[in-house]
Amino acid sequence: MQVRTENYSQIALQTRDFILAEFQEELNHSTRQAYIGILQNITPSNLSITDFRVPSWSSTKRLSELKSHFKILKDAIKKIQKRDYLSITPKVEDVKVVYKWIETFNVPHFYFQVFFDKVFGISFEEILTIISDPNNEGVIFSVETDTKNQNKTTIKIRSKSGTLIASKIQEPLHESVRKEMDRGRLLFYVTFKGGTAYLNVDNLINMLGIDTKEF
After folding, report:
1. Strand order in the sheet with 87-88
2. Which regions in the chain score pLDDT beneath 50?
3. pLDDT at 81
4. DSSP element (H, E) containing 141
5. What is the pTM of this model?
């Protein structure tokens, strides 16, 4: 993801420079001068928030070429603005329920996000601290409607904001199983065997706040 962002940043900045250098005459026309300011204001630090409308010019070959370069620039910026980190993903509706549960029963809660090669953990208290600071939005977390999860509103917290619980995982074996139900209906599903996460016990104990004497 980082490599993708760096590549598209280079494309965007090179395209910006090319347009300003090669299409100065076209941009100097009174109806197009606003785009000069837009281009000059594009910097590496604001690519993640830059936005503009691609012009519809096509009356001449040069204007069509200019439009195509603006489209390249726009597409590169859109790629840059995609979230560039894997995340811990509490749903907004769950946050309310968990908060009420803790408030009622005083039971600590933790989220664990398991990837193919690592496991990260974070306390619910830390989640609240992160999302309650508006300066963290767009940097450490984002709020998105997740199409893969019935369009539920989900908080995406940068995984590295959590604690690394396991840095090595041995994936389980999986196989297909067929189960015959009543009236001959067949159900097919996948089962898993084995698999190991090699835990960093010290990190886990510290995150859970466990007294080592009790562990």
Report:
1. 87-88, 152-158, 141-146
2. none
3. 85
4. strand 141-146
5. 0.64
